[in-house]
Structures are given as structure tokens and as C-alpha cells.
Amino acid sequence: MRAIQRGFALLIVVILFGLVLAPKVMAGGGIGLAPASIELSDAMRGGEYDQTLVLFNPGDGETYYTLGTEEGEAAAWVSYYEHERSESPIEGILVPGNTHMPIMVRFNIPEEAANRTYEVRLLVEAALAPPGAAAPGPRKESLGGAAVTLRIASDVTIHVTGTQILTADVTSIMVENTEVNYPLRTTIHLRNTGNVDARPEIQVEAWRDEQRVREFVFADEVLKPGANAVIVGEGDTTGMEDGEYLVKVSVRLGGEEIGSYEGEVSLFPVGTLTRRGDLVALEIEGEPYVGRVLRILGTFANIGQIETMAQLIVEVYRDGSLIGMEEGREIRVLPKQTEVVRAYYELNEPGDYQFKAHVYYEGRVTDTTESTLQVTFAPSQHELARDGRPVAIHSILELPSLIVQGDRRALYFGVGVTLFMLALIWTGVSTLAQRRKGDHSKA
Questions:
Q1: Is this structure's pTM higher than 0.70?
Q2: What is the pLDDT of residues 235-270, one digit of tens each?
Q3: What is the rounded distance in angstroms from the CA atom of residue 67 to the CA atom of residue 152?
Q4: Which CATH architecture has domain 277-379?
Q5: What is the architecture of the domain spanning 168-268?
Q6: Radius of gyration over alpha carbons of the chain, in Å?
Q7: CATH architecture of 29-161
Q8: For every residue of the chain, which 3-state class applies, written as one string?
Q9: Among residues 296, 246, 286, 291, which one has the least CA distance to residue 267?
Q10: Which positions ≥6 away from 253 have C-beta within 8 Å?
């Protein structure tokens, strides 16, 4: 009997160590990348340039590496290939342990790229899942209790040159009256008539009593060749007094002025301009099943004379009884503009639901709009119940894959389930042994 108990004790220790150490083994490995930086000089618009990267896998096992870029203006120019003769781009590659593998990165410079310097970062990450998995995630390693993603980057600098035509037409410039402490809004309509991207610079000056009291500069918008654009610039009026101001607007492109405007604008005391808005539509998105989250979307129209902060407020009823109230995030809505305001609600029980919504703005509320919905259990939940496989058991069956992926909650739950099952086995074996001992004593 003691031998059997010692054997089960050893089994418990082995299983616990296996569960604890398995994620760490999977999280091991590393990554290397060369070169650390790339520079393309005199890159022509419409040109295609290939460079070779070398991936290093210093770990013992093969690792799948995902290939990408940081977000940026030149990120869309980048694509990866297994080698020079490849025709189809790749998003990742499998590299055996203790080896290195060359891959090709291609840069396609658009015809509309302007003559200047662009920067982009090439990113390589060690992924948890192998090729063909539904959604490989980044591999993380635990260092001192913190999860660290195994990632490395190569910095690329691209100098674009070539013959360019940088021109644009300004069709209108408008400056709106506003209130003290509200933005002074300037709207410019223009068209890019050149063959490269255009980044116009807009300078707005506010003058009073022949003194310049405020200056704003906007240069964030990029226009593609042939594109029409409406650029809205907003300047801070905090600290400015109410009254009349002379506003001077200058639009420059490539160092040359392509449009200008001078005119009077009024800065009114707070509360002078009309605030008014309407909730013109209400829509419910999402599956009407218990456990799902609904998106409640309201379409708010600002028909007043000044911008406003708008927030969706929703009363939730189930089977005629009020069960809760949801408040969405406030968003800013410009005058004469329409925006979608949102709230979210999680369905916890089946029943007939009614959603009564209104929008709160500047101390005012719109009329209430209603929507109804019948909520049931999801078909999958019914199927699991009929098959005798509750959701909890279904989750237990997924534990091994979750533990391999480094899910700590799955690990702890798995340890608990393992201990519980071993305790049951231990109890059964002990009971059986005692019965046998009793039978021998009777004999």
C-alpha cells in the first residue's frame, strides 16, 4: 500500500512540474536580424527596390516569425518574399533552430511620392502558432514577472528623387465666428493639380488694434495627385477677449503662397450662439444571444451654430422592467455635421428587451428614440446542452492548447483540475486498499 501511495505522490509531483514548466519551454527561443538599418539613396518614383534581410534563430527548436512594419506613410510600400524568384508575398516564415535564413524585402515607390526622405521600420516577431494556424500571436517570454514580446526591427531610410510637379489650386477659404474659449475654425477647399503628394501649410493670424494677438499653423494634411480636399484648421482662443478681429490666412505649398484671405471674424461671449441637436436614428448591432455584447448606435445631427459634446444615454428594459442604464463616451460634433454616438450593453438573460435612447449635449437632451429586441440562448449553447457537453467541459478540453500558448489562467485552472482528479483517484485507491485489508483480516 505504501508503495502505491509513494508512486502516486511521485506522479503528482511530475505532473505539477510538467504543467508549470511547459509554457516556459514554449516561450523560449530568440531572434536576430541583419542588417540593423537600410538606406535607399536616389529612389525614383515608380521604382522597385529589393534588399536582403537575414533572420537568425538561435533557439534549439524551429520558430515561426511574422513579418511586418510599423504604421507610417511608407509602410504600404513594403512587401516580403522568401527569395528573389518568389512571386507571392509572405507574412511570415518558419526558421529551423540554430540556423539563419535570408529573405527578400521589396520597396515599391508610388508614382505620387513627393521628393523627400521617408522612414519605415521593418518588424519581425516570434509567433506562438506555426504556419496555417488561424491566428498566430506574438510569443512572449517572462523576465522577472513581466511578459516581453520577442521582437526585433530594422530601420529603413528612403530618399525619393525625380522630376516632380508640385501645384495646387485653392478654391475657397472661410473663417467662422465662434465664442470665447471655443476653437477658431478655418476651412480651406483645394485641389492637388500636380503629380506628387502635396502637403500644404496654412497660417492663420488674428489681429486686433493693429496688433497680432494669435497665430496658428496647420501642415498635417497630405493630398494625392488630382484629389480634392477640405482642410479644417482649429486655433485655440483661450485668453482672447470677445469682440471683432481681423483674420489673415495664407496657404503655402513648397514655400510659395498659393492662396490668401483677409476678413473680420467675431468672438462672442459664451452662450451667444445657438445649441441644438437631434437624434435622427437608432440602430442595434450584434447577435441577440445571452452572453453577447450589443453595440447601440445613435446618429446625432448638430443643427446648431457651434460645436457640441454629445453623449448617448440608453435605458434598458427587460420584459417591461427597467434593469439598467448605459452611458456612451462623449464625442465632439461640429456644427452642421452628423456623427455616430455609441454605447454598449452585455446581455445576461433571455427576454424581450427595449432600449430607450437620447443624446445629452451641452446641458440639453434630444427626444427619446426606442428600439426593441428579443434575446434567446445561442444555438451553440442549446447544442452543447443536448449533447451533454456543458460549456465548462468544452473549455476544459481546450486547456492543453491554452497552456502551450502561455495562458496563466488556463495553467492555474489546469493545475486545480489535475489536483482534484488525483485526489479522487487517491481516495479511491485508499478505499480499495482498506477493503482488501479488511477482507484479508476476515479470512
A1: no
A2: 999 999 999 999 999 999 988 999 999 999 999 999
A3: 10
A4: Sandwich (2.60)
A5: Sandwich (2.60)
A6: 33
A7: Sandwich (2.60)
A8: CHHHHHHHHHHHHHHHHHHHHHHHHHCCCCCEEECCEEEEEEEECCCEEEEEEEEEECCCCCEEEEEEECCCCCHHHEEEECCCCCCCCECEEEECCCEEEEEEEEEECCCCCCCCEEEEEEEEEEECCCCCCCCCCECEEEECCEEEECEEEEEEEEEEECCCCCCEEEEEEEECCEECCCCEEEEEEEEECCCCCECCEEEEEEEECCEEEEEEEECCCCECCCCEEEEEEEECCCCCCCEEEEEEEEEEECCEEEEEEEEEEEEECCCCCCCCEEEEEEEEECCCECCCEEEEEEEEEECCCCCEEEEEEEEEEECCEEEEEEECCCEEECCCCEEEEEEEEECCCCEEEEEEEEEEECCEECCCEEEEEEEECCHHHHHHHHCCCCHHHHHHHCHHHHHHCCCHHHHHHHHHHHHHHHHHHHHHHHHHHHHHHHHHHHC
A9: 246
A10: 166, 167, 168, 198, 199, 200, 201
Residue keyed to cell 442604464: 325
pLDDT tens for each residue of 14-34: 444 444 333 333 334 578 899
* 330 pLDDT higher than 90: yes
Paired sense of beta strands 369-375 and 351-361, if any = antiparallel
Contact 358, 313 (CB under 8 A): yes
| Cell of residue 382, nine digits | 442549446
Residue pLDDT, tens place only, 88-147: 999 999 999 899 999 999 999 998 888 899 999 999 998 755 545 444 444 444 434 444
- Locus of grid cell 483645394: 190
Sequence letter at residue 418? T
Q: What is the C-alpha to C-alpha distance for residues 185 and 267, in angstroms, rounded to an integer?
A: 11
* Rounded Cα gap, residues 282 and 266, in angstroms: 36
The cell for 215 is 497665430
